[in-house]
Amino acid sequence: xxxxxxxxxxKYPRLRRPKRRRRLVLAVAASTTALGLAGWGTLQxxxxxxxxxDQAAAAGPKADCSARVSPSPTAGEAGRKPSGTxxxxxxxxxxxxxxxxxxxxxxxxxxxxEELKKRGFRIGEVGNATEEYDKKVKGxxxxxxxxxxxxxxxxxxxxxxxxARLKTDDRKKATEVDLVxxxxxxxxxxxxxxxxxxxxxxxxxxxPTPTKTC
Length: 214
Prior knowledge:
Layout: H1 19-64, E1 66-68, H2 75-78, E2 96-101, H3 108-118, E3 122-128, E4 141-146, H4 153-158, E5 164-169, E6 176-181, H5 191-202, E7 211-213
């Protein structure tokens, strides 16, 4: 053009976005917002109408939950100590032990009886085992007692040695038991080990807490 046309003045033409396009964008944004609000409101209404059933269903099992507890003892059982519990084990001083030697080693019954006496047990008969058990006890010892001594006096005596076998017979007195020394016997347990075993046996057990079943 060779400089024939010049733009003079301080005003220039401005490029403007067409109004129709702006209105279209605003309409789309408004529609999207409206749809979102409508969806959220629908979900709230669903929760309102169905939430009560869910809460009732969730509360149902809790209402039916019951604590399982042990039945209370009857009047006849209240004064009797259950067997196999710390309260049922008699003290060594209330147990009479007959020490019988079923081995060829002489003096074994006497020495064992003296040691048991030092540990608080009462000593009854001391001597050789009867023909029924003489040289027939292969283990460390055989502890004999009444059926009632199975969970009372016999476990207490059993804390004084390891490797003994417990057996019941038809005797009536539960606090008198036999210690038949076998061929595998070496010695009673050490005093501290025997005391620890006796303490563990007679230690009160924790009371079980009720359990809920749902």
